[in-house]
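Review form for a predicted model. The reviewer records the input and the model, then writes brief findings.
Reviewer: anonymous (R2)
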Amino acid sequence: MKTIAIVGAGPKLGLSIAKKFGENGFQVALISRSQENLDSLVSQLQIIGIEASGFAADLYDSDQVIQAFAKVKEKYGFIDVLEFSPTSGHFPATLASEVTEENTLDHFQGLVIGAIRSVQQVLPGMLKKGTGAILFTTGLQAIFPIPEMGNVGIASSGLRYYANNLHAELAPKGIYVGHLSLGVIIKPGTQTDPKYIADAWFEMYTKKNKAEETFPIGVTPETIIW
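Model under review:
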């Protein structure tokens, strides 16, 4: 059985991705800061017959990230897929004119450094086996200028650059790296239900023919679904 590790797992997108992959033969390792929240998600997955476990770690703490992934590997072995979609930062999104060193560095550490820390825990194994997938989820500010997302956009665009560079390097080595940029406000029970994003991710993972896509396809800042 394959394993997916979801970093930044929450009750909306993270849970939906876990369900989608779990329903397609994956066991699920959930990673986020709160063990209490993780336990709730694991219970929901186990009720529908998906093998899952939660591993608490703060992306801002390198040792915690290393320890969490070590526990995942101890329990499940090889990690076939890493999905990275945390909500980072101790500062709210700011206008471009209100960007400061402090509020930007905070998001950069959570998103970019957090991603690098996570990738470092799975990539050596993937390179050794010549297989695997790394999936990065961001907001539309990773691609387009959105002045209201000034500080978050700097970090998100950096994460996108990292993802695209990884794809260029790793695709010839049998490792798929994808980036999905969301132009929606997630609302369960609507056209922006996270299950549709999970479907999009599973299709990208299965086909492996796109390094990057938006959700919905073709969305721009002017057509974001609120």
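Findings: The two ends are 38 Å apart (CA to CA).
Further findings: The first strand starts at residue 2 and ends at 7.
Recommendation: see findings above.
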